[in-house]
Amino acid sequence: MSATAAATTLWRNARLVTLADAPGWGLIERGALRVRGDRIVWVGPEANLPADAPIAAEHDLGGALVTPGLIDCHTHLVYGGQRASEFELRLQGASYEDIARAGGGIRSTVAATRAADDDTLFASARARALALMSEGVTTIEIKSGYGLSRDDEARCLRAARRLGQALPLTVRTTSLAAHALPPEFEGRADDYIDAVVQWMDGWHAAGLVDAVDVFCERIGFTRAQTQRVFDAARRLQLPVKLHAEQLSDMDGAALAARYGALSCDHLEHLSAAGVQAMAQAGTVAVLLPGAFYFLRESKLPPISGLREAGVPMAVATDHNPGSSPGLSLILMLHMACTLFRLTPEEALRGVTAHAARALGLQASHGTLQAGKQADFVVWDLEHPNELAYWFGRNPCRRVVRAGMER
Ligand code: NIG
Ligand code: FE
């Protein structure tokens, strides 16, 4: 039978975790999803299925658990080389900041990234994206930030865009040119910010940028410099995000909130005033337990303060070669519970509904609801709390992204 324009695919006999209304899992037993093109057109108990539209194909899921596709809303996936030797230095007692100040850290990845050709950058990022996808990730954010010149930043953003074209994966790009000071601007941080502000017009005009981020930190950029990058983003009508209060309290979250930031990320040193500013602006708190773990941080982000203030919390891998070389979003979901004491429901929302919001995609992604993109995962699990419980196991059985099985 040839599919007509109105024909739908039916996914039935599923235990649906819709996450439609917070709080709660939004569980629907013996649920069904109808998909037309790349959209969900109907969700509900199978018994209530309307009988009007023709069905082109039907899949009986045998009672399996189905959640929205997972969203990794903070990654630095495109880079050259790796930093295992820096990990060894840290095992011998050097700190992340010591290594950065000595010219290692981000700068060593910048050198490796500049030395890598476009196809090498693409191939290594593609392999990493495939690893994330194997666990049910259907959307990722990818930051630049290891090129740190006009052309090298553009190359990294282009590699990210190319991933979104080559793979069944939604990719959102973020310019993080203000990640570290490149060696040719040593001692001239303000000049570098001038250059970034100028280059941004070209990256934006080439369609390479969906959002703008800054590393606001003692070893990154000051609040004043952050503000100049944000002003440039505002002129281009690009949303902003911030690497905020990771290693110290720079009062960056409140600054980002004043710019209506989509998210502030890391946040171990976030103050009560920062929490309030984020709550008022509707800014998402992106928690990154992988970096917390790998850098052996001891100061926890203020989870109960964020929860009480109603700040939506997302969870992401922060995949990068220096502070979080992990490629398992499910492990991050688990660690958000063990290390940060999120509930399993908060952690799942953190990699779906709230992650969508951190990318400005809440109208189209993150829950199983009619009108949203048909991105969902079929799991070898009985209850959604098991996603937080198992670790080192991949229970992903099938993935549908934009209506197509991968
Ligand atoms: O998100 N905080 C800054 N950026 C990365 C680490 C980058 C690196 O060490 O290469 C992060 O943790
Ligand atoms: Fe990061």
Give short descriptive properties of this protein:
406 residues; alpha/beta; 15 strands; 35% helix; binds N-(iminomethyl)-L-glutamic acid; binds fe (iii) ion
Q: Kindly name the structural category.
A: alpha/beta
Taken as a percent bin, the fraction of beta residues is 15-25%
User: What is the overall silhouette?
Assistant: globular
Radius of gyration: 21 Å
**Spatial arrangement of strands, main beta sheet:** 3-2-1-4-13-14-15
* Major sheet attributes: 7 strands, mixed
Mean pLDDT, as a whole number? 96
Order of helices and strands: EEEEEHHHHEHEHEHEHEHEHHEHHHEHEE
Low-confidence stretches: none
Describe this entry's structure for a reader.
This protein is α/β, with parallel strands linked by helices and 406 residues long. It is 35% helix and 22% strand. It has 15 helices and 15 strands. It has helices at 84-91, 96-101, 106-115, 118-133, 150-166, 189-205, 223-235, 252-258, 272-281, 289-294, 303-309, 329-338, 344-350, 353-358, 386-389; strands at 8-17, 27-36, 39-45, 55-68, 70-72, 137-143, 170-178, 211-214, 241-244, 263-266, 284-287, 313-315, 376-379, 396-401, 404-405. The strands form 3 sheets. Strands 3-2-1-4-13-14-15 form a 7-stranded mixed β-sheet, with no helix packed on it. It has a 4-stranded parallel β-sheet with strand order 5-6-7-8. A 4-stranded parallel β-sheet has the order 9-10-11-12. A hairpin with a 2-residue loop joins strand 2 (27-36) and strand 3 (39-45). Helix 8 packs parallel to helix 9 and helix 12 packs antiparallel against helix 13 (344-350). The protein is globular. The model has no long low-confidence stretch (mean pLDDT 96). The chain binds N-(iminomethyl)-L-glutamic acid and fe (iii) ion. The site of fe (iii) ion has 5 residues, from loops.
